[in-house]
Amino acid sequence: MAKIIEVNQQFRLAGSLGIHRLGFGAMRLPTGGFHGPARDPEVGRALLRRAIELGVDHIDTAAFYQSGDGAVRANALIRDALYPYPAELVIATKVGPVFGPDGHRQLPAAGLRAAVEENLQTLGVDCLDLVYLRIGRMEVPHGESVAERFEALTRLREEGLIRHLGLSNVDLAQLEEASAIAPVAAVQNSFHVAQRADAALLDACTSRGIGFAPFFPLGGGLTEINDPRLAKLAARHGATPAQIALAWLLAISPVTLAIPGTGSLAHLEENMAAGSIALSDEDLAELTVAAPARTSQE
After folding, report:
1. In the chain, what's the furthest Cα-to-Cα distance?
2. Which of 22, 46, 147, 186 fits a 20 to 30 Å CA distance from 86?
3. What is the pLDDT of residue 5?
């Protein structure tokens, strides 16, 4: 399989750091689900190496992406498989949540330095390319101030520990609040063909040239995206519905950065092939109105 082709093009993060718009999410490398058993780490390392062979130059991770027993960790897999890193590789990570036996909590501003340093150490780098401040877990905590925590990350950027700053799981008001403190290079929120609640936030990012990286671009096992319209377009393009869903994300805005994750080599290659699908205006018109989302227990 060839590398990602030109229809996917590059996005210039913060106007300077060029990355392909189809990347790889590392969340599913340690475990198949949120609480599933640990996956074979050698499979994870093989997936990462194959992703690079296919042209991936943007990997999204977090120090808290790990198996329940902590034995398999995404950052360690990335370092084991890819270090020394290719010069063009951009690794994005996120800080904010802390997971424990009693659930999750949010780090205060004073705790973010330790979280950044953990990512630096586990990835084996002196400076992190992109760090998202993750707010909440799944629900977007509307009205919550991000200023103090974003200011803490801004100070770490000024020290040279972080190259670019981002926000994850936020609303438009929180983006405005953070942007008044320091440039926001990217936003990472839940968004896919069957979940478009943040369309206005995407529009704001598009108009400002801010990257928008949807997490769970294929539903994440929480929402079905098997819309009959996807199947129709998949047949038209000789593709799979999942590939059409990824191609749709890349087509709706020049700032979208799809980061599908998987623990399967076959799915990795299927996802990366979506970068070669060019949807027409007619195709996009068929998907203009969102279909009702359905929850999935898969």
Report:
1. 53
2. 186
3. 45
Q: Is the pLDDT of residue 34 over 70?
A: no
Query: For 224-254, what is each residue's pLDDT tens digit?
Result: 677 889 999 999 999 999 999 999 999 999 9
Q: Is the pLDDT of residue 222 over 90?
A: no
113 exposure class (CB count in 10 Å sphere: 0-12, 13-18, 19+)? middle
Please provide the DSSP assignment of the chain as one string. -PPP-TTT-EEEETTTEEEESB-EE-TTTTBSSSSPPBPPHHHHHHHHHHHHHTT--EEE--TT-B-TTSSSBHHHHHHHHHPSPPTT-EEEEEESEEEETTEEEEPPGGGHHHHHHHHHHHHT-SSEEEEEEE-SSSS--TT---HHHHHHHHHHHHTTSEEEEEEES--HHHHHHHHTTS---EEE-B-BTTB-TTHHHHHHHHHHT-EE--BSTT-TTTEE---HHHHHHHHHHT--HHHHHHHHHHHH-TTB-B--B-S-HHHHHHHHHGGG----HHHHHHTSSPPPPEE---
Architecture of domain 10-295: Alpha-Beta Barrel (3.20)
Q: Are 223 and 214 spatial neighbours (Cβ–Cβ below 8 Å)? A: no
- Please give the structure tokens belonging to residue 47: 């997936």
Instruction: Round to whole Å and give the CA distance between 169 and 187.
Output: 8
Instruction: Tell me the domain boundaries of the chain.
Output: 10-295
Number of other CB atoms surrounding residue 67 within 10 Å: 19
Total residue length of the chain: 298
Bridge partners, residue 100, by sequence: 103
Q: What is the mean pLDDT of residues 290-296?
A: 48
CA 121 to chain centre: 21
Look at phi and psi of residue 70 and say left if phi exceeds 0, alpha if psi is from -120 to 50, else beta.
left
Residue 283 CA to residue 296 CA, distance in Å, equals 26
